[in-house]
Specification:
alpha/beta, TIM Barrel, eight-stranded parallel beta barrel, two-stranded antiparallel ribbon, 14 strands, 39% helix, binds phosphoenolpyruvate, binds cobalt (II) ion
């Protein structure tokens, strides 16, 4: 039953955690009003299609690959950067599809991932207390006091950058760049001769041969749309509720409400309060919803959240994105799975092996160890095996560049090398080679699962 008391602004009746301290509420309202007149970024039909695809994920017929920046920025906004993020996700998807024989649902943390929750409202820089950076939609990363003052106008820029990013992604994925005949082109020059790049090349060659074989059998691949185009969806954390409300529109076909800022929205580990504004807001929109779950998750609360967000128990509506950390997953995940099962909730299980494995080096850099990421993935797969549930997908922070933000991997990046190319505005991301290495690793985990 639809909750008749829901409206796009009913979240205002609840406590909204992690909202910036906007200095001028009138200015905020002017911006939100303007945003509410802008065209939607995505369309309800696409969102429904993603829900259907996530239903397949939850039931083990497809695998979800969700990834991108921790925080997109206004500075990193070039065609090449967008193309390279798409390339790495297409490469990872090719590795998984070829290796595990599963179709891959591709969802970027892109075209809208501009707002961040923070553990502290302020931080001290050179003895001075300034607001924490909350993402480019809110304030600037620079460490002077005035840069950190929240400015609602930045949400307008975030909207326009999202629109242009999505436009290019649509052109790339529908216009021939994602064509399976181009698998070799996705491998970037700087990585071609690395072990992971070479391993990828051998898969690309095998895909070529498979296509030549089909062609030789008389199958016309030139007009096979599925090989020439791919679906690529967008997602971000639904954090700034004014922004999300302004982009929430009623679909004229179904009369349902959709948050048209992205195909999929997730609620963060810090804002999933059962009585909070974020859950209230997400309860009324019809997009697929991700729920980030860390070690502090209260199981009883989660059961109420699932009833609130998915009263009709629709497959594909909910993806539970667990981010426990390699050392804690064994303690927390099994109980969570058992309760979800006992209560009959239909969910997709997704592993985010990044956010529970962050630590700060002695020189003050936030990083993650590649081995901890692998360990959390191993545990995720083996726990789901024990519980007879489905490891449906993965959620990563990654980039197509050769950054040095996470330690380890085949390149053996060490703590001292982090300074070489540490560029993230927020959390440390896997670089190109680490991302490929991880895709091969997951492909092996999936193959093992298929054999059993
Ligand atoms: C994130 O995805 O960048 C994030 C802040 O995650 P979480 O809510 O899981 O901490
Ligand atoms: Co992050």
């Amino acid at each position: 039953m639809e909750d008749k008391s829901w409206s796009p602004d009913s979240w205002k009746r609840c406590t909204a955690l992690q909202q910036p301290e906007w200095p001028d509420i009138d200015k905020l309202e002017i911006v939100n009003k303007e945003l509410s007149t802008f065209p939607p970024l995505v369309f309800a039909g696409e969102v429904r299609s993603l829900t259907e695809q996530l239903s397949e994920v939850a039931q083990g017929k497809s695998f979800l690959l969700q990834g991108g920046d921790c925080a997109e920025t206004f500075a990193d906004f070039t065609a090449n950067q967008i193309r390279d993020k798409l390339k790495i996700i297409l490469q990872m998807a090719a590795i998984l599809t070829y290796g595990a024989g599963l179709s891959v649902v591709k969802v970027g943390r892109i075209a809208g991932q501009f707002a961040k929750p923070r553990s502290k409202e302020t931080e001290y820089i050179n003895g001075k207390e300034i607001y924490s950076y909350r993402g480019d939609a809110v304030n600037r990363l620079s460490t002077d006091e005035s840069s950190r003052i929240p400015n609602p106008k930045r949400m307008l820029r975030a909207y326009h950058q999202s629109a242009a990013t999505l436009n290019l992604l649509r052109a790339f994925t529908q216009g021939g760049f994602a064509d399976l005949h181009k698998v070799h082109l996705w491998n970037q020059e700087f990585i071609k001769r690395s072990p992971q790049g070479k391993k990828y090349e051998s898969i690309a060659m095998a895909i070529d041969s498979a296509m030549k074989f089909m062609q030789a059998c008389g199958i016309n691949l030139d007009n096979t749309k599925l090989l020439r185009r791919t679906d690529f969806f967008t997602s971000h954390e639904a954090l700034l509720l004014g922004y999300e409300e302004a982009l929430t529109r009623q679909d004229s076909i179904s009369n349902n409400w959709y948050d048209c800022s992205a195909h999929m929205l997730w609620v963060g580990d810090r804002t999933r309060d059962v009585n909070g504004a974020h859950i209230e807001f997400l309860g009324g929109i019809h997009n697929p919803i991700g729920i980030k779950l860390g070690p502090t998750t209260k199981i009883d609360d989660l059961m109420v959240i699932l009833d609130k967000l998915n009263p009709e128990n629709i497959w594909g509506r909910i993806s539970l994105i667990t981010r426990m950390g390699a050392e804690k997953i064994d303690k927390f995940l099994p109980k969570l799975i058992q309760s979800v099962k006992e209560n009959g909730h239909r969910v997709g299980w997704i592993c985010d092996p990044m956010h529970g494995n962050t630590f700060t080096t002695t020189s003050g850099r936030k990083t993650r160890a590649f081995d901890a990421i692998l360990k959390e993935l191993d545990s995720f797969f083996s726990i789901h095996d024990t519980e007879s549930t489905i490891p449906g997908g993965v959620h990563f922070e990654l980039t197509g560049d050769n950054v040095t933000e996470c330690v380890g991997g085949a390149q053996e990046i060490n703590v001292d090398q982090l300074e070489n190319k540490y560029e993230t505005a927020c959390d440390p991301r896997l670089n190109n080679e680490q991302s490929l290495e991880l895709a091969f690793y997951i492909s092996d985990l999936l193959k093992q699962r298929n054999r059993e």
